[in-house]
Amino acid sequence: MMDMLRPYILSFIPLFVAVDAIANIPIFLSLVEHSSKSGRKKIVLDAVVTATAVAIIFMFIGKWVFSLLGITIPDFQIAGGVLLFVISVRLLLPGAQKSLLAGPHDKDLGVFPLGTPLITGPAVLTTTLMMMNSYGTLVTLVAVVLNMFFVWVTLVKADTIMSVIGPNGTRAFSKIMYILLAAIAVMMIRHGITGAFLK
Question: Is 105 helix (H, G, I), strand (E, B) or coil?
């Protein structure tokens, strides 16, 4: 039983780290501060649908784009690992996401910036392709859907979660997630170098 679940767990965890749903709660609350209850529900739905659609579409066209451009999986592992590492370092710096908060009253903020790039950004897209290469389409698809369901729950219950863990708890959790993301990035670079030069 554990052997059957192992690929799903190993695919879910890196995506969970990349999505970092808890870290998006304070940003989400600041964006919807002046929205009505029904408006907030629409924003959450738009955000989750957009994030899921972008991730799934990229899952299926990503490799086709690679073959068109002559990019190999080790190439992408190295480039994607470097990108993930840079993103994680940037997110560890104070105030890195402030630029994403422009236009908080935009009626489409569920699509941008929440759906993409806050929920499904470069880190999620890169990780998704890596998980597809390692565990296959079905496992990765299940991991994406489960992560997006978790995002939906955290956004719907954002006020409750924020009151329980508080702003400091949210920040601490985010920092841990970003450090894990940096470690995953280093692992991807290592695998890419192994695949490209040492096979």
Answer: coil
At 108, give phi and psi (nearest 5°): -100, 20
Average pLDDT over residues 61-78: 83
Give dist(CA 6, CA 151) in Å, integer: 22
Q: Which one, of 28, 36, 51, lies nearest residue 162 by Cα?
A: 28
Cα gap 128→141, rounded to integer Å = 9
For 12-67, what is each residue's pLDDT tens digit? 999 998 898 988 888 788 778 778 889 999 999 999 999 999 999 999 898 788 78
**pTM reported for the whole predicted model:** 0.76
For 169-199, b/e burial (b = at least 16 CB within 10 A) is ebeeebeebbebbbebbeebbebbeebeeee
Q: What is the DSSP string of 139-190?
A: HHHHHHHHHHHHHHHHHHTHHHHHHHHHHHHHHHHHHHHHHHHHHHHHHHHH
Residue ranges covered by each domain of the chain: 38-197
Rounded to the nearest 5 degrees, what angle is found at the Cα of 80, between the Cα atoms of 76 and 82?
125
If pLDDT is split at 50, 70 and 90, which confidence band does 98 have?
very low
End-to-end CA distance of the chain: 32
**Alpha-carbon distance 195 to 96, whole Å?**
33
